[in-house]
Amino acid sequence: KAVVSTQSGHYGRGEEIYEKLPTRADQRDERFAMFDTFDPNGNGILSLAEVDKAIRDVLAIDELFDAKPAIMRAFQAAKACGKGRADIGDDYIEKLEFKRFLLGLRMYFEYWVAFKRIDEDDDRRISFEEFSEAEEIMKKWITNFGDLQEEFDTIDENDGGMILFI
Length: 166
What we know:
With 166 residues, the chain is mostly helical.
């Protein structure tokens, strides 16, 4: 299945977010400079706390800063991709993993925005009722959208009756 990009403005500031995240191959120097800005103590690694603070202070986009689940997922995905320096372990993002973090942040932020649009009661869970009510909008985002109950059950991997953003 393919999720249609929310870059077209589903959350209002998509273009601004994309412009502030240097993810293209020709933006390597800009990306490395951003990493250095995110790294206040200059130790060449970023903790989740440093990333979170930099998203607030450097990028200065409240919607992105408030999307904690998206930030966490992107951070976890980026640090899992590298081998990690033996002297520090795998709990940090290194400079060469930073591009993957930024790409993940874009992707998970789009997922988070879509999730929030469906989560009507803002409890960070999607019930089958909320899922059903959002069927038409999801069909705009997702190609090959199948049977509603089957789709819900596929996403609800733990059979808890709710879809969680984890």
